[in-house]
Amino acid sequence: MRRSCRSCSRALAFRSVFGLSAIFLSIAPAHAQKTDVLILSNGDHVTGEIKEFNRGKVRFKTDPMGTVYVKWQDIVSITSDKTFEIELTSGQKFFGSLQPAPETGQLEIVTREATVDVRHLSVVRVTPIKSTFWSRLDGSIDLGLSFLQQNSQFDYNLGVEARYRAANSQTTLKVSSIVRLQDEAETTNRQSVTLAHVQSFAPRWFWAGLGAFDKNAELSLAGRGSAGGGAGRFFVQTNKVNLLIWGGVIYAHEQFEDQSPDNLLNGIVSTLFDFFVDRDRKSDITANVDIIPSFTQGGRVRIESSLEGRHEFVKDFFFKLSLLNSFDSKPPTEGTTRKNDLALTTSIGYSF
């Protein structure tokens, strides 16, 4: 019976992995008219559709060349009658169309109220305000697999991230799954699903809402659901570096193995650091630390941290190395359960 159950678990794991891959890779953006014009420093005029400006490059979709990436410093002027959200290093945001500026190195933004000229170097992000759901969605999916025939050990790790952008807000769904299946042994797994919503209310300031579910067999955590919110600020926001900190309060309902469920009121202080390098290929380093002290259980502090490196080796395909760590200073099963769980994963992924 045990071998049969393991076979079912393995089959279910394969279906989950490849089912999710098929769903996310089949997402296709809505078509739009390619009427935007870029004038480059070499005098070329390129007609297409502005998909996004981020990390110092404009992602520009054309008919004859497909999607190309143009460095900001190589652009003399931009013309588009579509509506964009333009975000500056100061945190200030504008909503409007784009026209050639009177001076080189500037971007002219035409809003409902006025026309504003800003320096190219002060622009952090330009995002089209699309009308359909799918056109506002982007993200990535990555997968790592390993198999040892000697003991029928199968390991997989899956990561999914989807972002939905709207005016002054962004909603992000993250899924992380690490599973080890082995004959005549207990299945070990670490699962995490997080849904976060960020709403800007002032330059560099935002409200944050969070919902999450976690499971970790190594820490005897059968399940933890949490929800809460708070406020935060971008302290650094450029085309190379982002640093934000937010804090708030979260409610958690957790269940450890062989323990009664608990309802907890916790605080949270979260830090996210993102560093970007763009040479021949794009590389990202992202570090995240969540410090979660408990108001209900005195002296208990949880720390969730991650360090992720991502390198694009072919257009839209990347290699990812992730280091994840979970720490609990006073788990309910203290003395019989580890306080710390560390995981290192590698995977190949695709950005959409």
Structure description:
The protein folds into 2 domains: 243 residues, Porin (Beta Barrel), CATH 2.40.160.40; 94 residues, Roll (SH3 type barrels). 7% of the residues lie in helices and 66% in strands. The protein is built from 1 helix and 21 strands. The strands form 2 sheets. The protein has a 12-stranded antiparallel barrel with strand order 10-11-12-13-14-15-16-17-18-19-20-21. Strands 1, 2, 3, 4, 5, 6, 7, 8 and 9 form a 9-stranded antiparallel sheet that branches. The N terminus is likely disordered.
Compute the CA-based radius of gyration: 23 Å
CA-CA gap between termini: 42 Å
| Tally of DSSP β-strands | 21
Work out the helix count. Answer: 1
Class by alpha and beta content: mainly beta
Q: Indicate the overall shape.
A: globular
Short summary of the structure?
The chain contains one helix and 21 strands. With 352 residues, it is mostly beta strands. The protein has two domains: 243 residues, monomeric porin ompg (Porin, Beta Barrel); 94 residues, SH3 type barrels (Roll).
Which features does this protein show?
352 residues, mainly beta, SH3 type barrels, 2 domains, 9-stranded antiparallel β-sheet
List the helices and strands and how they pair.
Elements: H1 2-25, E1 36-40, E2 45-54, E3 57-62, E4 66-71, E5 75-88, E6 93-100, E7 106-110, E8 115-119, E9 123-128, E10 137-148, E11 153-166, E12 169-182, E13 188-202, E14 205-216, E15 221-237, E16 241-256, E17 262-278, E18 282-293, E19 301-314, E20 317-328, E21 340-351
Antiparallel strand pairs: 1-2, 1-5, 2-3, 2-9, 3-4, 5-6, 5-9, 6-7, 7-8, 10-11, 10-21, 11-12, 12-13, 13-14, 14-15, 15-16, 16-17, 17-18, 18-19, 19-20, 20-21
